[in-house]
């Protein structure tokens, strides 16, 4: 048997392996400190900024699984690329903003 599941899922964020995509995220504040503490993906690269921010770049298999993880950081992360992930996060933020415009 030539199938190697580790090789097949090499870029996966979780268990899905879609087309590989380069994700570039900028973290601020406490989130930047937390990001520095862990290895989130074997392909990750971290760039430090003098203002305390850090950029996390990694090549993952698609954005479907990583999107909820990115959203979990709230306003402490900015998606710099890919454009489709940035658009998804922006749309989610717009829906949240509209939801909280209504008074209870």
Description:
With 104 residues, the protein is of the alpha+beta class. The chain has helices spanning 5-8, 29-36, 66-71, 83-101, and strands at 20-27, 45-48, 54-61, 77-81. The protein has one domain. The chain is built from 4 helices and 4 strands. Strand 2 (45-48) and strand 3 form a beta hairpin. The mean pLDDT is 88.
In short:
The chain is built from four helices and four strands. The chain is α+β, with helices and mostly antiparallel strands and 104 residues long.
SSE layout and pairings?
Elements: H1 5-8, E1 20-27, H2 29-36, E2 45-48, E3 54-61, H3 66-71, E4 77-81, H4 83-101
Antiparallel strand pairs: 1-3, 1-4, 2-3
Q: What is the percent of helical residues?
A: 25-40%
Low-confidence stretches: none
* Cross-sheet strand order for the largest sheet: 2-3-1-4
What share of residues are in beta strands? 15-25%
């Amino acid at each position: 048997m030539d199938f190697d599941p580790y090789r097949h899922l090499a870029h996966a964020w979780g268990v899905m392996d879609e087309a590989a995509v380069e994700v570039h995220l900028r973290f601020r504040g406490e989130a930047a400190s937390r990001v520095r503490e862990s290895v989130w993906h074997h392909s990750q690269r971290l760039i430090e900024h003098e203002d305390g921010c850090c950029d996390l770049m990694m090549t993952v298999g698609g954005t479907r699984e990583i999107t909820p993880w990115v959203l979990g950081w709230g306003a402490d992360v900015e998606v710099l690329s890919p454009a489709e992930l940035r658009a998804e996060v922006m749309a989610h933020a717009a829906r949240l903003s509209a939801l909280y415009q209504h008074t209870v």
